[in-house]
Each structure stands twice: as C-alpha cells, then as structure tokens.
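User: I'm putting together notes for a lab meeting next week and I want to include a structural view of one of the chains we've been expressing. I don't have a solved structure, so I'd like a prediction I can at least talk through. The sequence is below, exactly as it appears in our construct file.
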Amino acid sequence: MFIIQKGKVVVRKKVGKAERVLAELSEGEFFGEMALLLGMDRSATVEVTEDSRVLVIRPDTFESLLRNSPEIALKMLKKMAMRLRALDDNLEMAVGKPAKE
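Assistant: Thanks for the context. Below is the predicted structure for the 101-residue chain, given as structure tokens.
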C-alpha cells in the first residue's frame, strides 16, 4: 500500500478499449490497499502527476497497523466507503436513474 506524503497521482484503469481516470489523489490519501486486503494483483495503474513523496507500506506492516490501530482501520474503512459511494453515483449517472415506481 502507498500513502501520499507530498504531491499528486492519478489512478487509471483500462475499461474495454478505453482507459478511465478513477481518481486523483493527493497528500494524505492512499492507494494499493485492495491488492493487500484481497491478496490479488493490482487492478489499476497509478501515475505521478507532480513531484511526489510516497510512503510504502509493506503487507506485514499493513496488517499490523490494522490489528493494532483501530482508529487507522476505521479511517480507511470510511475512505473506502466514500470511494464506493462515488463509484455508485458515477455508475448511476452513466446508466441513467431508474424510473420511480
């Protein structure tokens, strides 16, 4: 996992033949947590868009942080929930709102 200490990055993912920007992240934000949590390959590409300093969190350190710091785990869960909510909103806009019954 990576935590941005300084600078900005863009998270991109190939969807079909097109590449989509999923997020623009800056100081204090993190990425790469899904690969660690799921034990899977990374699902997106991250590109640095300005001079940056990024803290690398190794898998064993990440697990220790989550086990020993409930406040960090809670902050991460809230941020991940916000990302999921934004994804839901974007999906809803892309396919159109369902008709009310």
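A couple of points you could mention at the meeting. The chain has a mean pLDDT of 89. The first strand starts at residue 2 and ends at 15.

User: Perfect, that's what I needed.
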